[in-house]
Structures are given as structure tokens and as C-alpha cells.
Structure prediction request, 1003 residues.
Amino acid sequence: MLRIANDALTFDDVLLLPAYSQVLPSEVSLQTRLTRDITLNIPLLSSAMDTVTEARLAIAIAQEGGIGIVHKNLTVEAQAREVRAVKKFESGIIRDPITIDPDATIQTLYQTTLENGISGVPVVRGNQLLGIVTSRDLRFENRQNAHVVDVMTPKERLITALEGTSFAEITKLLHDHRIEKVLLVNEAFELTGMVTVKDIAKAQAYPMACKDSLGALRVGASVGTSGETDERVAALVEAGVDIVVVDTAHGHSKGVLDRIAWIKQTYPDLQVIGGNVATYDGAKALIDAGVDAVKVGIGPGSICTTRIVSGIGVPQITAVAEAARAADVEGVPIIADGGIRYSGDIAKALVAGASGVMVGSLLAGTDEAPGEVELYQGRTYKSYRGMGSLGAMSQSNGSSDRYFQEVEGDGRKLVPEGVEGRVAYRGPVGPIVHQLMGGVRAAMGYTGSKDIETMRTTPEFVRISGASMAESHVHDVAITKEAPNYPRIDFGSQYTQLIARRIRECGVYCEIYSYDVDEAFLQEFAPQGVILSGGPETVTVGETPRLAEAILDLGVPVLGICYGMQTLAEQLGGRVQASAKREFGHAKITAERPSALVGALGATQMSGADVWMSHGDKVIEVPPGFVVTASTSSAPIAAMEDSERHIYGVQFHPEVTHTANGNALLSVFALEICGCKGDWTAENIIEDAIAQVRQQVGDDEVVLGLSGGVDSSVVAALLARAIGDQLTCVFVDNGLLRLDERDEVEKAFGKESGIGNALPLKIKTVDATQEFYAKLAGLEDPEDKRKAIGNTFIDVFEREAKALPAVKWLAQGTIYPDVIESAASKHGNAHVIKSHHNVGGLPERMALGLVEPLRELFKDEVRQIGLVLGLPKSLVFRHPFPGPGLGVRILGEVKPQYADVLRRADAIFIEELREASLYDAVSQAFAVYLPVKSVGVVGDARRYEHVIALRAVETIDFMTARSARLPYDFIERVANRIINEIAEISRVVYDVSSKPPATIEWE
Prediction:
């Protein structure tokens, strides 16, 4: 019989109705109830997952005002240690400071300080305070057998405070006496606690931090229902845990309810959260068992497959609402666990009845989450897996009991309810939380909710269609600048570029083509060797990319890397299977037998070599004719080869810098095994390019838009040598260039440069400053400014080029990554990511042929060619400069006087970086003009002028970046120069944002 309880809704099925509001987002309170007795300052919990929450993330979340729940895939001792680390990180008043007896030896004292990572130890006998031993007392003490009483600072000289002294008074004591610790005593001079200057500083830095009554950060920990739970709860309580979460996939079950009742009976003062449930009855059962909060969610998580595997679940909005209907009667808070993708989802969960939300995937990619940052397909990620995945369930102290399963043997009988994957690396957690809570604040402003309780009870939902949700997202545009609170999930990339670059570094020419090239092309191209790159695919499931048989029929050496090795093994008769344990990160490889490739890494049968792994499948049987040449602890077949047919495979990535001597392996393959000559040098590249250009253009004239950037400058120098005065360069001065940039370009390419074998370039300089500023007048939006600058440049360039009637060709600085991104290579079948022209639309508008002499070169090769051609190093290695120039480094409307000020400030910054030998140490540095004013004093005069922001970043690929850790004295010197030398500036700030969530440029 068909029985349908009711319709159910999830986050994308509803929107919140806007309402009359007298509330500003900045005025709302985010404080909320976590349990019956504990309050949070923001409604956020981090998930108890082994790729999300350990001590470091729990500390960061608590400092922001939420709470972290430490996962249980740890030994009892290890989980308690993580909890203890959070409680001791910011202690407020340390109630149980480590002490030492006055009769202990100095050797014992040293051991105590080293084991506990402390520098000052109170000296007590019983509870009586006798003194303190600080690092100052021990600085010149060499007697290991001397006693503590001989070196300590005695109580007569101690700075102490009576129990109950305010933090303000304690802070004054620390400051007045220049000490780092104040000991708290009672009337009998017995030690009752300690306050350190570090803890006070942390409290001031994070005023919203979630703390207990003693000033320590709050932290929770998850437990299961298995036999060791008694021991685990006891250890957590002893470590100072604030909350225990009985974390199971189905909280509405007898074993869970009994365990909760036992914990509450044994530890009546301990706050207990129970879950997970998704119904009214489930929530009521947990409340009846004694929980202090109910966790709701069965199957909504991004890496959870419970609903697919078992067919069980309730869409999350309905699940939260039903649980809240039961919990509100008893005054028990609801926590929505899973399915949160955006800040708007948090707002919806609160309106549905939750008091807080638990998130995992949004935090898994942060610096503070467990695990290392991974390089995968040219981008950075961190591992993320469900607690119902095979990896999480099958490990020692794993999560199988959460799903009421037991590990048997090798774990193959486990039925997983989750998957393993990766999420994009997102930098520090602080900015992520800021964006999430900023979205919640906005929702509260729209609905007129002054606090979380009002949010839970007042706003209303409107049910929407799929079309409505599509309308809600960005649509009908290509995102050109990503917002920090609206991420695009992208697991694809052109990873093989890195392999090609490494081969070229060996002096061997290398091109990138699709895996399914046809035989005719291969015969024409006639490669001396083939490398099969890695990729995100798996050979164990469904239709997957397969190597063209024509490649193996060539009879040339073949090297398969990662997926390349797996598809070789599978196609040639070996066996590949999905691994129960994915391997991402460093591994130690050991040689199984002599091999030229493995030997290049430095690996032997006695000693290993460091390599970088990134795979889920593994080869379990090599094809006929192959032998195993290397292994790791989790990959018995880490390398294989058939030396007679010259076919090789490696499971690791030799192209990344994380693999020690990886370049040596690729060099052995290219030069020794394939027999390539290694003559791909800058000089030979120049010689070939000159011949090709002369053949292509003949006696025709060529026009080039010269910007002063690296690519166009190298093209200019190369064409000058190839065709001399057949080239005319148009340099457009748009009034948005760096200081003296026009003069530098004219000097670099003028009569004194010597470029082009003593033939100076014909440079047509166009001063279009007024034209550009007229188009920019009144524009403040960054995209409007970019569009105006781009369109004006095209108009100016087209006008000037048409004045050269003999011109038949347009030269551009297109380089090889542009070709790959455009899927525009001669034979490749790459997926089109974007179409690319350096001067957008000009070839079509002007009916010109294209000359692109750098289209087969990577950026580093372009720079080397520039040096050989005689371009100054300062030009070849200059930092990137945006196409719209200073137009997007002046926030708001662009005015000539603003550009003049910014030019001078930027020049000072760059000059100081060069003077301090820091210019080449950072990837990009620049100044930004802010449309705000600030008061300053210069000399004896008050100054009320604008603000300059300095920005410097370190990055490898510009996909992610972190702010450069420049010395404070350097930043101070730059700031002082800017303020003293530029009258229009009164204040300088330094941008410490990472990408993501921020972008490198400000607009």
C-alpha cells in the first residue's frame, strides 16, 4: 500500500519573504542558544568529521564566536588531547597551572617546561605559593642538580593579585611591571590561578570568542555508542570538554537513546547533544532521553549518500521544522546538520526552527582543517570525506559504529553511506565565517529580525519552483570576478601544462594533444616519445578516456603518469581497482628492482625517495611483460615498466615540486630513453620564430599594440629582429599607466636600445588621456570602468591602425597557456574554457591576419627569450599589471589627480621593494587609492586626506595567493615615505587578505 506522510522541502525549494524592517544588519544580535545551558555568539558549529575539526579549527571557530566539535576517529587519548589543546589555548584564568616543588632539581624543571611548552612555573609546597621560576631566572644557570629554591624569584618579590581582581586591574599590573604572568592568590597566599599576557592579548583580539565562565574557549567532542564510549566520555570530561555529541546516523534508535540516558545519569552537569534525527518523533525521543540539544539531518550532506544507498531521509527544511515543533515545547535548541552551501541556507535553517547550523564542506578547505593542501591538476585542494565513507569507517577508531556496522577483516563488507573527495583550498577560516555571518545579518535585516529568536519565529517562507531557484543564481553572464561568498565549484583544469613545462626545461620541445589523436596525425607529427598525463577520471567505473591504440603502435617510448599508468595497465591486460584508502600527499617510494626511471629519483631497495601521490584507484596486477619497479606502503605497484617495449608507468606525479628529483626522472625519460637532443633553447627558439615570421608575412607590414607588458614587449623585440621596419608599434597612453611607463617603453625600444640589430622600432605613441578620462567620468562600478577602458582602447587602436593602409597583419602576444585555454591548438580536442584574443575583437573588426610568434611558449620561456633579445631584466620580470591599468586600482570614480597620486605612491612602494631586495620575493605588489579620507598630522599641521592601501602577494599560479609577510619595519618605512612625500595622503594601510576569499586586485 502506498503511504505518503506529506510533502517535504529543502533549501532550494523556498525563499524568505522580505518584510518591513527597522533593523540594520550591523545592529542585529547573532547570539543564540546551543544547548539548554550554553550560549554561542554566532549560530555556527563545525562538523565532527576527521577532515574538518580537530583542535586548530575548533580554536579558530570558538574565537569567531561559534564552537568546534572534535571528531571521534581518534584514540580516546588523542581526542582528549585535542580537547585539552583548545581549553588551554586561551585560558583566561588558568585554574590549574603547572607547578613545581621547591626541592625539585633544575633538570626536573627543564623537563617540565619542555614537556608542557611553558616558560614560567609557580613554585608551591602544598598549595602555599613560595615563588616562581622564569626564563630570566634560568638564563645563566648551568647547575643541573641545583634546586629550584636556589634560583626562583621568592614570594617577597612576586607580583600577585587577590582572587576576584578584575581583568582591567590585572592588565594594569602586567603593563606597569613589564611582566608576562600574574599569579592569583587567596587571603592565605595559596595559589588559586594564573593570568598571562598572551591570554589577555588573545581576548582583546577576539572579543566575540565563545568562552566558559573561566575565560577558556568552549569546545565539544563527538562520541558513539560502542563499548569504549564509557572510557571516551570520562577522558573528555577530564580534559574539560563543554559538550558531548552522541553522533550517529540514526538517533531515533534504542542504543542511542540508552547511551544518552546513561551519560546524563553519570554526568548530570555535562551538556549532551543527540542525533541525528529528521522527524517530530525522533526529536521527542531524544528529548525524553535527556538531551540538551537535538541535531537534525539524515542525508543532506554534500558527501553523504545515505538517501541514495538506503532510500531514507527527509529534506532538510521540513526535517528541521518537524524537530523544532517537538523541541520548542521543551525549550530544547535544534541544530541543523548538513546541506548548507551558502549563507542564505543558514538563514533558511534558522527560520525553519534551528538555533544553529553545523557545517563541514564550507570549512574543510581552510588552513585550520586537518590535512595538507594538495596540488591536483594545477590547483590547490584539501581532502574531504564523509564519516560514512569507506576510508573513515574502516580505519582504526573509525566511524563504522556511527552507521551501526562493525569492521570485519579488510573492511570490504562495510556498506558505505558517504564518499571521499576534495574541496577547493580556501585559506584561513576567519574570512569564511565573516562572509557566512554577513549573509545571515543581511537576511535578518531583510526580515526585520533583531535577534536569532525573532528570526526563528517571525519570518515566513515562500515556496518556489526550479525556475525560481535558477533565477536566484547568477545567470546569463560569465563570472569574471568571483565573489567570496558565492564560490564556483571547479574540479577541472589543464593540468598537463606542468608536464610540458618540465619537459621543455630539459631542453626538449613538447606539445599537448588530446588522448584520442588519430593515426594520420601521429605519423605526421612523428614524436620521439609520448607522456600520458594524470586526470580526474577512473578506469574502474563507466566509460572513461582510453588511449588511442595508434600511440602504442608507434614503437616510441611511452610514460604514463597517475591515470596514464592506470589506463595503460587496464588496456594492456593488467588489473586496476578502486582503493579503499585514497592517497593524497607525500609518500615514501622504495625501488623493487633496478630501473633507470626510479633510480633517477634516488630511490633504492634500501632507502626511499619522497614523491607526491594523488589517486583513488590503484594497479593491483601489472600487464604481461611488465615488472614492478617501485612501491609505497599503500601502493604495492607505484611504478611499472616493460623495458623491451619501452613502456613505463608511475603512480606518482614527477612534474610537481613536491616530488624530490621528479625533474630528473622526466629528464631521463626524454633524453636517455627517448633519445631527444635537448636543443630546445632560447637561441634556437628565436631562430625558428624569425624564420616562421618572415615566411608568414613576406614583405607585408605588421601592427602591434605595445603595452609595456612582458608578452607584447617580447613580441616587439622578436619582430624587430625578424622584419625590421615592416613593424609599427602603437603605444596608447590612456592616462592610467604607472609612473614614467611611457618614457620607459620609448627608451627600451627607441634608438638607444639596440633591439632589432640597431634598427629602432617604429613606435607611434598616442596620447589618448583625455579621451579615456571622458569615457570614465561618473563611473564607479568596476565592471563599468573595465568596459569603458576596453572599448575606448579598441576604438583608439583601430583608428590609429587604419591610418597605416599598408598593414596586413596584427601581431599579438598570445602564449601557449592561452592556446590551451582556447582549445585552439592545431590538432587538439581540448574542452573550450574561453576564447582568447589579446586585443579583443580587433582581428575580426579590422580584417587582419594574426601573427603570434609566442603561441607555443610558456611564460618562463617568453621571459628567457626576452633576456636573450636584449630586453632589460626590469621589464622582463616586472610584476603583472591589469589591462585597465590604474583604472581598477582607484576605487570609485577615476580622476586625473587621483591617478597622479596613486602613481607616485605605487612608485615609492616598488622602489623600496627593489632597494630591500624584496621585489623578486613577492609575486605582485601595488598600491590602491581608496575613496575615503582620514585625519593625520604632518609636522605641526593637521591633514585630512585620502588613504593608500598597499598590497603584496605570494603565489605560484595566481589561482590562490596569500599576502606577503613583509617585515613591519619595511612597511613602516614605505608608509612614512608616502605620507611625507605625497601631501594628498594622510594614512597608509597594508592588505593582509588571502585569495580566496579576497581577490588579488581590489576591483
Summary: Residues 889-990 form a domain with the GMP Synthetase; Chain A, domain 3 fold (CATH 3.30.300.10). The first strand starts at residue 14 and ends at 16. The mean pLDDT is 83. Residues 782-802 form the longest helix (21 residues).
